[in-house]
Amino acid sequence: MDYIQTTPFKKQIRKLRLSSELIKSILHEFDNMDSKQVSQYPYYKAGIYKMFKKYRIGRYRIFFTYCKESYNKYRHYLNCSFCDENNLELIVLFDIQKRSFDYR
Amino acid sequence: MSERIQYENLILNLYLFSRIKNRGNMFAAKLFYLFEEDLFKKRFIGPKYKMIKFQYGPYNNRIRSDLIALAKNNFLKLDMVYYDDYDLDYNVYFKNKNTQKFLKEIDELIQENSVIFNRFDDILNEFGHYNGKDLKKYIYSLEKTGKLEKKIEEYEMGEVILDPCDLQEPKFSFKLEEDWYDTIEILLDPKLKQQLQNAIEEVQHGNFTRL
Question: Which of A16, A91, B7, B26 could share a disulfide with B132, CB 3.0–4.6 Å?
Fold first, then answer.
């Protein structure tokens, strides 16, 4: 499936110093997902995060949206500049974060 | 260092201070002890602070650091108050708008675990009007308490009085499943929240790469 990487997503990848193999494997996975597979990823459970799906690999979590599912509910909130109701077979990779070890 | 952060404990701290104001570590520790013991007897697990015998009875240092961290991240308001009795300054905590907002956002989770939160409400109703010193007195007055069911004085300093995790096959345990765990981690971290907010703004302004 086509996907979009936001600038913060790309910045985070650099900041987290992910290996190029890991990045390749993550992007490859998104690239090869079909709509059925994308739909199976769970959503975060509360707050503004409810509109994001979660992809987890090791200690890393990716926040992404699947336009086909988020268009009706969240397009006014997200208001993405590229939004196209005729092309909703699209994944948007918003952010990648690492799980914390401690709460301080 | 634990692989898993005990967000359940942090949630219960926020729930406690959403109901009670102007209390410090000692109050929180003693109240959590009474709560844990009550749940233990019912074969439930709520907070998971291992309670050790300290100078003033059951305590766990982690309670203080959890409260400070919550205040540092602006989920509680922290004030220093001078107590004549001890000639010392103490941290006291109050809810703020983020406490309430957070609890509202996780209302579904609270409902799912109502068996624990309802019991916590009962404990708060019963002991919420006490202060730390009164709670300590109350706990010391108990003839049988803790895992060995004896008076607090009879426990050695540093001895474990109660560890909720000792409970084998609990009837119910307040444990976040993975999707909730990941959500709570972000909800309680203002930096992560801001980072995601920035990402939303970037797609609104056309800063992205299409592949």
Answer: B26
State residue B182's pLDDT score: 93
The structure tokens listed for B39 are 């749940």
Q: What is the pLDDT of residue A48?
A: 84
Distance from CA of B114 to the nearest CA of A (A): 17
ipTM over 0.95: no
Q: Residue written as tokens 């540092």?
A: B72
**Hey, which residues 106-145 in chain B have their CB within 8 Å of chain A?**
106, 108-109
In terms of residue numbers, what domain contains A55?
A: 2-78
Contacts of B210 in chain A (CB under 8 A): 2, 4, 82
Collapsed DSSP state (helix, strand, coil) of residue B48:
coil
Phi, then psi, of A53 in degrees rounded to 5: -90, 160
Structural domains of chain A, count = 1
Contact B48, B8 (CB under 8 A): yes
